[in-house]
Amino acid sequence: MLLTRLADVSREVAATSARSRKIALLAELFRDAEPDDVPVVIPYLAGRLPQGRLGIGWKLLGRRVEPAAEPSLTVREVDARLTAIGRVTGVGSQAERGRLVGALLGAATADEQRFLLGLITGEVRQGALEAVAVEGLAQATGAAAVDVRRAVMLAGSLQTVAQVLLTDGPPALDRFRLTVGRPVLPMLAHTASSVSEAVGRLGACAVEEKLDGIRVQVHRDGAEVRLYTRALDDITDRLPELTAAARELRGERFVLDGEVIALDERGRPRSFQETAGRVGSRVDVATAARAVPVSPVFFDALSVDGRDLLDLPFAERHAELARLVPEPMRVRRTVVAGPGDLPAAESFLAETLDRGHEGVVVKALDAPYSAGRRGASWLKVKPVHTLDLVVLAAEWGHGRRTGRLSNLHLGARTADGGFAMLGKTFKGMTDAMLAWQTERLQNLAVGSEGPVVRVRPELVVEIAYDGLQRSTRYPAGVALRFARVLRYREDKRPDEADTVETLLAAHPRVAP
DNA sequence: TTCCGACAGTGGGGTCGCAAT
DNA sequence: ATTGCGACCCCACTATCGGAA
């Protein structure tokens, strides 16, 4: 199949807003793909490269390449050339990758270039990614969409499911079962604004500590242990203490879901930055492990001794977990019968925060494990802080925000009467707010550097954030975590905005 | 007819490791 | 030795479509 066909379909998918039409367009393309093209065509139309990331970003792609006049590239040729680019390493590799990718783009028409650039940078922006591709695949093969989706979650990969499905037909989907050693996409949580809202929605539920660490899926089959991240990257080699812990558990074969976190001598959580730095260290693991030891904390069991537990209610899965894993290695929790038990749930949240953790996850006791989905049966609750800050600058947006001033630079007042930048945010704005702030900020503009428009510090905005973190980038030595706009405060003058001093006083453990 | 779940898009800060400077 | 870049951790929120209620 020619690449130009994919570029055309992608453009058509982007041009239609109807999801059903996007699905139909993808289905038609998948039906036409030859078996050998399938492993490439399916991931491409789901917006991903089958070989994952190639070490090529915007900087290496910055130079414009003269497009070819006529399409000639086949998808298999493109795939082969990208695989070759991904294999280039060592001294001079950046220049060589740049040269190879330039040559590839030179063989592509303007339309094909747009499509390839989107794929390589991971930004296809066609309003259709994996979920729509799954539906398209189902439509192309006559399989039920739910069955295809389930197979993808269990295989952890759309591509392998697509190949089996297109070669052997819908009955072959039965082959995809939870297998020890093969990671499953983890279940995710929605957000609730309070424990009472969460318990009100779920009824009988478990209220569990939410630890600020890194999600980990642990597979053990006899002596063999494997560890996977939320995106299913294999991180076994980086966390020897987790492998050892898994070997000490009583079961021989299991799959557990949990969090890995660095704790101090008193058992209090260290900062997320320390945990993430440790889990990210992969060259000198022994040294990193001595400096920042980590602990596993489990909260779910997906498979035990050959039994697939995914469809069991959470209460039963947890009973299996409790049989297998001793209490210190399980997440702290309390079980409540419903809204009548609200005080117990709320005091559990308060105690959890006292212990230094970030909040709780409220989980329905009767819910199955919805692999790969943000099921409504897990609700996280975290305290939200707010500040009134001053807009120091704004950046022009991309995509659907093109032509709008989008990303705000936020400052708090300093002792000397100036402002210290604490971070940026693009979150929380409605289309109406974007239009309003674009107009308003342009009237306050005093200059610009690249995409950044500096403004007179006159506009006050109320910001929600999850906490402070240490920063080497910002002048106060701290940055806001997950900042988002709540509303503009036109009733406030900039000299009424919050100060760095009060912010640091509110977060004494983070203050430099 | 209205409501709501699921998706895609739009980016944020930090850290590590590798290659370039 | 330092800097720049890309990959991945963590993540919130709005707009939209289309099926559920």
Outline the structure in words.
- The protein is of the alpha+beta class and 512 residues long.
- Helices cover 37% and strands 22% of the residues.
- The chain is built from 18 helices and 19 strands.
- Strands 11, 12, 13, 14, 15, 16 and 19 form a seven-stranded antiparallel β-sheet that branches. It has a five-stranded mixed β-sheet with strand order 1-10-9-2-8, covered by helices on one side.
- A hairpin with a 7-residue loop joins strand 17 and strand 18.
- Helix 1 crosses helix 7 and helix 9 packs across helix 10.
- The longest helix is centred in the N-terminal third of the chain and has 14 residues.
- The termini are far apart.
- The model has no long low-confidence stretch (mean pLDDT 96).
- The chain binds a DNA duplex (21 and 21 nucleotides) through helix 4, helix 6, helix 8, strand 1 and helix 13.
Taking all Cα atoms into account, the compactness measure Rg is 25 Å
- Number of strand elements: 19
Summing up helix and strand content along with how strands pair, one would put the structural category as: alpha+beta
What characteristic shape results from the CA principal axes?
Answer: globular
The number of helical elements comes to: 18
Mean pLDDT: 96
Largest sheet: 7 strands, antiparallel
| SS strand fraction | 15-25%
Provide the helix percentage.
25-40%
Unreliable segments of 5+ consecutive residues = none
Terminal residue distance: 58 Å
Keywords: ATP-binding, Cell cycle, Cell division, DNA damage, DNA recombination, DNA repair, DNA replication, Ligase, Magnesium, Metal-binding, Nucleotide-binding
Protein name: Probable DNA ligase
GO molecular function: DNA ligase (ATP) activity
Pfam families: DNA_ligase_A_C (PF04679), DNA_ligase_A_M (PF01068), DNA_ligase_A_N (PF04675)
